[in-house]
Amino acid sequence: MPFKPTQPKQNVSLNYAFTVFFLIALSLTTHTLISHMQLSNHFLLSHIFILYPLFMLGIFSSTNGKIKHLCVAASLCLLILGCLDDRQHNVIPSDVILLAPLCYLVLYPGSLWPMAVAGLLVLFFIPTDPLHIQGDFIGNTFELMTISIFATVSLYYRLRLKTQMERFRIESLTDFLTGIGNRKAFNETLQEIRTQPLNKHHYFSLLIIDLDNFKRINDTLGHQVGDQLLKEISLRIDHVCQQHLQYSSVFRLSGDQYAVIIQDNDIQVASEHLAQLIVSSCTAECTLEHNCYFTTMSIGIALMRDAEHSVSFWHRNANIAMYRAKLNGKNRIQWYDDDLNNEMKRHYKIERELSFALEKNELSLYYQPKVSVETNQIHHAEALIRWLHPELGTIAPDEFVSVAEKSQQIIPIGRWVIEQACQQAKYWHDHNQPICVAVNVSTIQFVYDDIYRIVTELLSKYQLPAELLQLEITETTLMTELQSITHTCHRLRKLGIKIAIDDFGTVYSSLNYLRELPVDSIKIDKSFIDESLHNEESQMIVRTIIQLGHNLGKVVIAEGINNEEQLAILRSEQCDLYQGYLCAKPLPADEFIHLVATNNHSEMHVS
Ligand code: C2E
Ligand code: MG
Ligand code: MG
């Protein structure tokens, strides 16, 4: 595996030095043993010493423990044999005997072997001539033992230090909770891949995996269960990778985010396959402390070859894909591509610059007429927000309202919308064009802002008759805080403000809240109108909503009317108002009022 984070980094130059030293020492020892044995007329014995370097090389190169031990025993026997013989002839120079223990130092670094070998040599090398014991021999023995002890001890501590450093390094690269590689290991691996030859970059891909709604598990079930779940998920991801891919590394980058780097010849197919396997393994039931949990995940995949050989781009691309998977509703696998990149760049720009949009006066309200189905007159409008961005052009609310809701910037924006709408409605009212303006109010505004106070303050500030202001609330908003919203709506309605349920039919169209809520109008969602021409069931739903609304005394409005056929259906079902491109798209205030003037004037003449 080319990029396992836990692999120790070898000091290559030091290893070479040791090997060279070993080979030199070995050849010197062997040469001396053989040539001096020949000198001492032991022709046969000298040939036996040819085996000595073979045994030593056997120890050096073999990974088999038994062979190693055999070679050690045989080499020692040969050395002792040489020493015993030399006691009589005294031909082997002591320097060579000194080199032999140092060879064992290379073979068994940090062990007591070199000292043991030195001791053995001294023991068997004691000359038969007592005169030698007095002089050279004591000096040589002292020299041999001192060097062996010094070399053994210093190497032992060096190795201990190295092992400890390696342990610290591995610990610093390991995620303490799950035992897999952490963010540092991930970054190191990315750097390793970066330094690989460019043609190899084609075979790498990166998967960023983020658990969906993990915070909820942590908040509701506690951090202990959360930790166990994270461990279980990392085990499963690791298991899937090990089972199905030869080259893969798994990391935990942060709380509930994992990364998998894979290498394969058919990288696209391998990545997709692996992502599918991870999803099916991790979304399977998970039993923690006798309870069953299910979790889903969003996965972003990016290929190294799409990242211009930059690992930071590569990481960013996989993140972009993962965030897109989240934005698209989570629980999915998303591949990175250039379109996604542009889309996400735009999204980030919108997210970044939204907070300045209000200050910079870039927001504006457009007005779409709500037309009477029966008379074709316009007395109502819906105020729809637009962001006139200096670079991106006009941005529709679908692109930024949800962003504003997430950051709660919808609160100042929503206040601005209501104020603009009140100001505009008052202006038209004062110019003999009374138009009831509807504004969309988000759940966040209802939950975190004081809508009642804001509306009352603005009504009095602009002296606007309350019946010229309508609030549109979606079903989702109602479901969030039905009781408090019902209470606020009752109070608003007492002021004379009108309330409409927007996009009716798209969520749980509960009859209960139709009874509870003080609503004036129901807006049938555009999707039913789109289908009504070709789908009888949708037409039946439109009919049923209109009848239901009328039976409850509500005004019924149909959204998204694009053509005369759709309008004909509404007419036959006696719908009250319609809104759609058939009459007009949302327009700036001056164009809108111009349309109203010409439309209402001509309709008056027709009727
Ligand atoms: P909505 O309140 O349901 O508004 C109706 C949307 O349908 C508008 O899109 C409108 O332009 C579009 N529409 C109307 N008739 C037709 C038609 O015939 N064909 C087609 N294709 N579309 C039609 P818009 O303006 O993009 O607004 C989208 C949504 O953004 C709105 O849906 C509303 O939920 C939200 N929104 C708009 N302005 C605001 C605002 O000031 N505050 C909040 N909180 N949400 C807003
Ligand atoms: Mg609306
Ligand atoms: Mg709507």
From TrEMBL:
Domain spans labelled GGDEF: 202-338
Pinpoint the EAL domain residues.
Answer: 347-600
The yes or no answer to whether the keyword Transmembrane helix is present is yes
UniProt keywords (A-Z) are: Membrane, Transmembrane, Transmembrane helix
Q: Where are the transmembrane segments?
A: 12-31, 43-61, 96-125, 137-159
One GO molecular function term of this record is: cyclic-guanylate-specific phosphodiesterase activity
* InterPro entries, sorted: Cyclic-di-GMP_PDE-like, EAL_dom, EAL_sf, GGDEF_dom, Nucleotide_cyclase, Rev_trsase/Diguanyl_cyclase
UniProt-listed PROSITE patterns: EAL, GGDEF
UniProt entry tagged with the keyword Transmembrane: yes
Q: Name one Pfam family in it.
A: EAL
Query: Could you identify this protein by its name?
Result: EAL domain-containing protein
Query: Per the UniProt entry, what species is this protein from, by scientific name?
Result: Vibrio eleionomae
Highest classification ranks of the organism = Bacteria, Pseudomonadati, Pseudomonadota, Gammaproteobacteria, Vibrionales
